[in-house]
Amino acid sequence: MSRPSVQAPAAIVMVRPHHFSVNTETAQDNAFQASHGDADSALLARRAYDEHSAAVAELERHGVRVHVFEGEDPATPDCVFPNNWFSTHAGGHVAIYPMKAMNRRRERRSDIIEMLKARYRVQDVIDYSGLEPDGLFLEGTGAMVLDHIERIAYAVASERTNPIALERFCTHFGFEPMVFPATDSRSKPIYHTNVLMCIGTDFALIGDGMITDRARREEVVARLEESGRVVIRLNEAQIGAFAGNAIELQGRDARLLALSRTAFDALTESQREMIAESATLVPLSIPTLEMAGGSVRCTMAGIHLAPRR
């Protein structure tokens, strides 16, 4: 069995969507979203529900503890992406985040926070949602990719990552902020950091070619290499296939890299082999859910808390 790592949670929260649709409120700055055209909305919702259920079952088969909540509010089309509104941290800390889209703010749920308090050791909950009226947004572990080992918060500069909110989080939680600009080949800014990069215990996936400031790009890669990780570079096509939107988890017998089937297919054999040296790849088929502009990483909120005995 691979050694436990603070980077790889053994338990996660997932929210199963009952009314999945592509969120029109977030389409302006999310180039990863896809229009469903004339597709039947009820059929799309059913497919998303089934994909999510199958993903949960596959993760549980590998020994990941999955706390599933039901997303039954039709006014929350992105409820399947809970990692944007809360995160958990070693030492018993929980953060709640300010969200840009009005309808995404409805995703925050007290029952999830109460479950965390009941099942895990929670010392405090810091709620940043009061920053929303001032237009200060920080969309959780979508906006930030956290290196829990080296205590660095990597963040693409965007409307969903306000520097004031980021500084407050980093001060409270003991992370060093590392902000950088990133765009696609059409000069459209990357909306969330977690579509651009993934940090595991022994490796990091990153679309570094999309970081537009060369000096900053070299600095980001250097920091990842200094941590002892193997840096696996992704091209723009692989980023578009959500190869960067993966998450390392602790399974029953080994660490896992959960990613979508789309992402898995986009990786080269050499890249898969480099990942497989320290984590078992677990591809999950969620093509309908990916129409909303996020993939496997977005659907999971990692639990970095000590369980209650």
TrEMBL record:
The keyword Transport does not apply. Pfam families: DDAH_eukar. Keywords: Transferase. GO terms for molecular function: transferase activity. SUPFAM superfamilies: Pentein. This is Amidinotransferase. The lineage of its organism: Bacteria, Pseudomonadati, Pseudomonadota, Alphaproteobacteria, Rhodobacterales.
